[in-house]
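Q: Convert this sequence to structure tokens.
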Amino acid sequence: MNKRKQVTLIRGDITKLAVDAIVTSANKSLLGGGGLDYVIHKKAGMLMKQACIELNKRKGGCPTGQAEVTIAGDLPAQYIIHAVGPRWLDGQHNEADLLCSVYSNALSKADEMKVQTISFPSISTGVYGFPKQLAGEIAIGTVLSTLPHYSFVGHVLFVVQDSENYQVYQDLLSKIVDENLIINIEET
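A:
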């Protein structure tokens, strides 16, 4: 009998979580960007930065919709999964499919690394301008539809900082009824 999978919503600082992998909303170069990616690069330190530089040299960065893994450096996680989400243009440029792909690819990379716990921010909803409601629907839909297929990933945490994203995720998760899934919503 399979162990039930878990999904948890937290409003807080993703960089402080002792999980196996932290996902960052990266840019294509993997060399650090703005917002959360900047914070993760700063807190992870030189070891992670050097790993990103090497990945960039070897692979030329990472395309939109894909993900790459590095060590987490000085963060309490083992790995950082650099997920390159799409910029929102107008909804007519494959943005939804690319966002779905980035969550799916990040989970696949995590499972390859035998990660059991993984934390996601709300990818692309900051400076990339993706509508928060649609991004939440895609994130939760993708995670819930693919999570049962992974051998190692057993606990996904959605970690958001702002009240609007928190409300979106809370509303969506509170409607889920699945006997094979444990859903935890931490109150703020």
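The mean pLDDT is 95.
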